Each structure stands twice: as C-alpha cells, then as structure tokens.
Amino acid sequence: MDKKQLTIKEIASMAGVSVSTVSRVLNNKAHVNPAKRKKIQAIIDQSGFQPSMIARGMVYQRTNTLGVVVSDITNPYFTALVSNIEAVAEDFGFSLLLFNTMTAGHTHQKDTVQIEITAFRNLQEKKVDGVLILGGEIDQATPDPHYITALEQMAHHLPVVIVAQPVKGVDCEFVPRYQQMSAEMITEHLLASGYKNIAFLGGQPDITITNERLSGYRKMMTTYADYSAKNVLLSDYYVEDGYQGMRHFIDTQQVPEAIVAINDQVALGAIRALNDHQLSCPDDVAIGSCDAFPNGNYFTPRLTTIDHHNEDLANIAVNKLLTATGQEKIPPIPTPALPTLIIRESSGHPLKKKKE
Amino acid sequence: MDKKQLTIKEIASMAGVSVSTVSRVLNNKAHVNPAKRKKIQAIIDQSGFQPSMIARGMVYQRTNTLGVVVSDITNPYFTALVSNIEAVAEDFGFSLLLFNTMTAGHTHQKDTVQIEITAFRNLQEKKVDGVLILGGEIDQATPDPHYITALEQMAHHLPVVIVAQPVKGVDCEFVPRYQQMSAEMITEHLLASGYKNIAFLGGQPDITITNERLSGYRKMMTTYADYSAKNVLLSDYYVEDGYQGMRHFIDTQQVPEAIVAINDQVALGAIRALNDHQLSCPDDVAIGSCDAFPNGNYFTPRLTTIDHHNEDLANIAVNKLLTATGQEKIPPIPTPALPTLIIRESSGHPLKKKKE
DNA sequence: GTTGGTAATGGAAACGGTTCCCGATAATTA
DNA sequence: TAATTATCGGGAACCGTTTCCATTACCAAC
C-alpha cells in the first residue's frame, strides 16, 4: 500500500546493466551473457519486479484482456456462461473486463441501452482485444438504432462476438443457439406425453429468444394439436413472472394441462403458484422448460428441461473471438452441440396422461 | 475490425493544431481559444476519436479498474455480490477485472490456491487500482502460507479489501460479516419454534464461514438445548451436499427435528432428499438456512433464511477500496446492516411444535 | 594484418497520451 | 509609444516497456 512498484529502469541500475538487457532477459531473448542473465534474473526474482502490462500494451498494442458485456449476471444462464468463458479465457492467458448492464437492483429498463453503449465506449478506451456480448439490447426483436450504431462502430475497430441470434445488418460474429429447436423439443415431449392443452409462459415480448422459442412452440402446437394465442402468456424471465403468470391462468380459470416455460426460473415460479392453490405439478399441470439451471434437478418436482450445453457455447464464443484477434493457433472451434432434453419429474411420465 | 484507431496526433493534424491543444480540449483545460476549441471538439466528435486509456494510464499511473477475485461466481451468494459491486464500481467510473478461481467445471481443489496466486500476479501486472477478494483460500481456517505471502506482497503495493472474517497477521482491509450472529439467529428461531433436536448441515470443514456459523449454532444449542457433535454434518456448500447429508441422516436413522443448513442451496438439497423418502419439510424436518438466495422464496416449502444484505456489503467493500485508493471524496462508508431473519415456511410455524 | 562474421551491450526511438515550460502574440496600462 | 501582462499554442519531457540500430569486442580465416 505504500512502496511503489519497481520499474525496469531500477532493475537495470541495480544490476548495472542497460534497460535493453533487462528487457532481453525478461523476454528470454538471445544475446545476453549467461552469467549476466542469471544474475539479472536473480535480482528480478528477489525484488519481486513485475513488468507493467500497460506499458507493454503501449508497444504491443494489445492488452490480453477481453471485454464481456452481459445483460444480467444474476440470471443463472448468464452466470454459467460467464463462468465458463472466464475459464476458457484464462486458459489462453486473457483476463475479463466485466460489464453488467442491467443494474443490480433489478431496475429494469433504467435506460439499459445507454448503459450498454457506455460500456462499449469504455471497452474501446481500455483497448481490450475483443468483446463478447451476452444478451441485452441485441436480443430485442428490433434493437435501438443508437445501440446498433454504437455496436457497429465498435465492431469496426475490434473483434466482437455476440452470443445471440444473428441480427441482420450487424457485421459481427454471432454464436447462435438452437432456441427454436429447444422449444420444439420440449413441446414435442409434452405432446408425446399425451398433453394437448399446452400453454407457453414467460419471456419478454419482442425479444428474439422469446420469439424463437415461441415459434418453436407454435410450430409443434399447430402441427400436432391446436395453437391458440390465448395460451401464450409473456412477461419476463424471472421467477416472479412465472408465479404471476400461473396465477393469472388460475384466476381466469384457464389452467392448461401443461406448460412450456421460457426457463427454469419461470417454471419454478409457476410451480409455486400451483402449490399455493392446492394444485400440483405434474399431476394437475405438467411443466417443461428451457435452460437447465443448476438447481433444477433438486426442485420438487425435479424440472424437465433443455440443456443448451453452455460449456460448448463458452468455448465457441471465446475461440471465435480469439481467432478473430489473430491469436496464435487456437484449437479448432468446436461445432455447437444440439440441445438435449432432460426428462425429469415436472413433465409427468411419458405416455401417462394427466389424471382426470 | 480493420480500421485502426485514431490517435491524438492525427486529430491534431486534422485540426491543424498541436497535440497539446487537442489534449487541452479533451480534458477541458483552459488556455484554448473558444472558437478553436469548438472546432476541435467537432472533429473529435465526428471522427469518433477515443483517447487511449492505457496511454493515459501510463502518465496518471492509474487505470480506473478494480480487480475482483471471486472463488466461485456460480454460487448465488457471490453472484449477487459481484453484481452489486459492479454497479457501485461503475457509479464511480471504475471497471472490473474479474477472476474466478474455482474452475467452471466445479473441479474442486484443482490447485485453486495456485490459481488465486496467479490471479494476484495478473492483477498487479495489469496495474489495477485496487483488489477485492471474495471467498477462496482466505476463508480457510488456516490458509496456505504461499497464498498468504502472495497476498501480503500484493497488499504491499496496492489496496486490497477482503470480504471475509479478518485473518490475523494479514494487513488488509476486511469487511466482516456477521456469520456467527446469523447462525445464532436461525438456530434461535428453530429453538423458539419448539424444536430441540436440531442438526447442522453443510459447509466445508475448516472454512472460516463454516466455523463461525457452526459456533453460532453451537452456542445456542449448548445454552438452550443440547449440543452433540453427532448432529453436525459438514461437507460443502452445494445443493448435492445438502442432498447427501440429509440422506445420510435418513439412512442412519438419525433424522433430526430440525436442521440449520449452511446456505439455501444445501437446504434445497436436504428438502429434496426428504421428499425422496416420503418425508416432508417442515412437517417432519424443519429447516432454516442462511444467505437468502433469490429463489428461496419460491421453493416448496419457501425457505426460512437469513438475509445478509449483500447490497450493503458491496457498497462497503467498494467504498473502502476507493477511499484506500485515495479517491476524491466518496460518500461515507455505510455501517454494515445486521443480518435479518426471514421467516417463511420451511421452519414450520413458530411455537407450533412438529407433529409427533 | 586486414577482413568479416557474430555475440554482447547500450542508446534511442516509438507506443499515445499529459503537462510543464517558454516564446509569441494580443491586450492592457503607464 | 513603450512597457507589462494575459492569453494562447507549440515543443519537449515523461510514463514503462520493447525493439531497432550502432558500437565494441572477440575470434577465425584468408
């Protein structure tokens, strides 16, 4: 807290050599007398000298830092993603500069667009080597034009990888996920289990994820049962949204046989609402959801859900980003794994229709 | 991705002035002709020039970046903390450099000490203005000596704030939490509800948090009931640990009347284990826990738990850190709020003894 | 004994900004 | 009109590191 950091210059004078020589030993470059090298190395070691990465950054024009802009790190889906990304990045010697754009107090829409845009600006100023975007305005069906211009301006200067469905006209790398497919899978599973009257619950309207999943649901419903807009109840991605949504179904006497929940949190909220009205999942209402949050296997009932294979996503995203930065050979970018269905209790037993 | 970033030099030549003049308008310094200032500003704006913070860092010797070393960002407790910290830091114009030291795949103990130490090194090299430590080796009852020396060496060069119980001999700022008190509160609540045979479940042995909470539990038990070591079952902080722990109680026919769980995840696991054996919480076993994870209010049963007021913690931690960096006046550091008991369903109804 | 090649070393420029210092011009005052 | 003072703008040093280049010394071969 007091003693200032040493500089290469001081090391040089301690060792009685020039700065260039010290630099050569720091970087294992040739052309330095073995004896001298050993001596200098010793001085470095026991003085605890650490070269300034920011000075290095000046000359190399790279910081070995990746920017991560995440909409809500509190969402288990993103938490897992960030955690995996951090692990992969660290493997390649990169650190993460983290920006969380939805303020902690869950102050939705407190001009998150502006927050994201200033995050972009910060990242450029701090000269990160690349940026990863997870959720946020990019997921809007029609993102704010200011956002798009800010994004493109940034993407013009440094590599940007976005974990989201591609947005037309935005020139970045996208890591798509099989949103529609996962909704199809979960809906199909419920249909195959004998449920007909299946509702769709949760998700903010006009968000790409919602739209994709909804259309997967819709596709399956129209082909194998009946699709009705009355069975679709959107709101948001949080547990309270599932709770309120389910309550609405109950209050309006429109309780469906089964529900496709936009994610595990919403499913949890819905289940709790059922319990509060002496209804049971899966006996009264079966539920299937997406996103495979870590605790879902311990809920009562255990959640039937879709695993999106986050680790793969993280791998792909970071690898894409690093190759875009022109990194030395990165292991080949893995192809994304398809979502897999995890059948547990909340959807009832296959082919065992709900009790009448 | 292609066009290189502009430099102040280029702006200067575009505007036909010297670099110093551009710098003056960038920093709102005096001694530049208003007309010229306006013109230069215009060029800056429409060229999208952004001064390099790393070059600035060189001269100012500060980066406006805070390092965060967190043991497991996947743990909801830490997630919430990081999220809050990010919000506070951003308010003061700081970004976060994030290091997650327990690798994503939950590879416990894969030499996390070494990972933490290299994180320290990275942070120093990257010249962050201060470091925040959340969990990890520092929580060990007897931390690895290598870790301690690395920590002290770092703390010698830059401000470090640790969200943990103070460790003797380590010269850093600590933000203590009322771990013992919270365990006392939850135990007291169970005792007041009429339970006598109360077990303690979860938490890694030899971790400060575990020890503190355990001693709170022990204190209340010895004074108001009977303390027996057989009622203490430690393991870890995850949901599976709660599950296995509860199973052990069941398998060995030592099912207690009530349980103090180390956190909400463990509580969830325990509840699920009960359900799997046709036992109910709270009817057969009441459960109280700590940490107030966001979803606890939607579990079945809703979790009785302790709120540690994370937002306050984040505020205190960041404020302490920023004042330590010698920041311009920071709002006074708030005094930590005491933990509060949240009574919900899992502990049964107060004064209503468990059914026989 | 001159030449040539190579290893070891130091000096200096460069990276992109900020800031101090100083000279030049314009404005004010004697 | 001359002297003094503000105001403005340019040059240069500096932050910590790398790298290019020049210098010296050494050794071998002709």
UniProtKB/TrEMBL annotation, chains A, B:
Superkingdom of the source species: Bacteria
GO molecular function, one term: transcription cis-regulatory region binding
CDD domains in alphabetical order: HTH_LacI (cd01392), PBP1_LacI_sugar_binding-like (cd06267)
Pfam family, one: LacI
Record-annotated HTH lacI-type domain positions: 6-60
InterPro entries on file: Cro/C1-type_HTH, HTH_LacI, LacI/GalR-like_sensor, Lambda_DNA-bd_dom_sf, Peripla_BP_I
Keyword list, A-Z: DNA-binding, Transcription, Transcription regulation
Domain HTH cro/C1-type, residue spans: 3-30
Listed PANTHER family: ARABINOSE METABOLISM TRANSCRIPTIONAL REPRESSOR, LACI-RELATED TRANSCRIPTIONAL REPRESSOR
Record-given protein name: Laci family transcriptional regulator
